[in-house]
Amino acid sequence: MAGHRTEAHPHGADRLCDAGDRVYSRAVRRGRVSREDAETVPCLVELALLHPDPDDMGWLVPTSPQEVMTRLLREMHEHVVATQSRMGEAVSAFEWYAALGGDARSPAEGMALRVLDGLPRIRAAMDEATEACTSEVLAVQPGGIRREDELSEGLHRALALRRRGVRMRDLYTHVARHGQGLLNYMELMEDAAEARTLDEVTERLIVFDRTVAFIPASPDRTVALELRHPALVDYLVTVFERLWRLAIPLTAPLPDTGIEGITHRERSIAALLAEGHQDAVVAERLGISVRTCRAHIARLSETLGAASRTQLGVRIAQAGLDGPPRSPELQPLSAPGPESPTGR
């Protein structure tokens, strides 16, 4: 941490030397320390951790630990802000140098990767890709029920694409089926868009004309990557196409689990629990809240007659819910109940 340093005591206020630690601690406990005792640790005065007592110049009083902590946090914040600023400058410089080898018609064209830092830059790049798109858009939309503001944010792009005859294919989680906003959106897009759903999908992905792709580069999705390298884009398209073949059309019902009392979502939860995932991870992967996930687990436990999480794991395996659906001849006709040999 920043602070005045000397050869004898090359440190800042965030990490005192042993001698400085002892003297400063004593000063805080007693309220002051004599100048003579502090002579061996000039670092404390240099770092403004000790200062003269205005009532007696032969003594030094300590700066309160709370004030020191505030100062350190302020310095840390200033350091983070400065680092972020330098990162932004470095990204801009990278883009400038990379663009020198590209086509003069478009600075972004010919660049394999571009970092988009901040929502305004992301939206601008998406708008640019939308305007240039002529045939197809592939999108993966993770999470649960899509909020109206999320759907509205990209609606102008979708409508512009529809007017130009561009085809759109979207992948969602099964949970998204329960949102009226998505149904309204698909109705508005008519035949220009097709949606399918899966138990879980990858992180967000948007591909325009199989030439440029966008993926998030930060957990809060305020940083994104624009990818134009053909190998990278082809790889992402392949991932999308394989998920698309496994997905179920939005207009088609979800398949029955074949086990009485067990819903499709509960089967998905059971499979993830069998893999050893915690409730929060299961909820995130399926696009539901932790509270909803636990309610399903409670119903699953009741249906399978499990009195504990350990017993639930056993019941899940016995019912064949710990993996993909089994063939009909191997599938149990019902979940084990209390009266069955495997029940309580």
Automatic annotation (TrEMBL):
Residues 319-344 are annotated as: Disordered. GO terms for molecular function: DNA binding. One of its GO terms (biological process) is regulation of DNA-templated transcription. Residues 255-320 form the HTH luxR-type domain. Pfam families: GerE. Gene3D superfamilies: Winged helix-like DNA-binding domain superfamily/Winged helix DNA-binding domain. This is Helix-turn-helix transcriptional regulator. SUPFAM superfamilies: C-terminal effector domain of the bipartite response regulators. It comes from Streptomyces apricus. It comes from the Bacteria. The lineage of its organism: Bacteria, Bacillati, Actinomycetota, Actinomycetes, Kitasatosporales. CDD domains: LuxR_C_like.
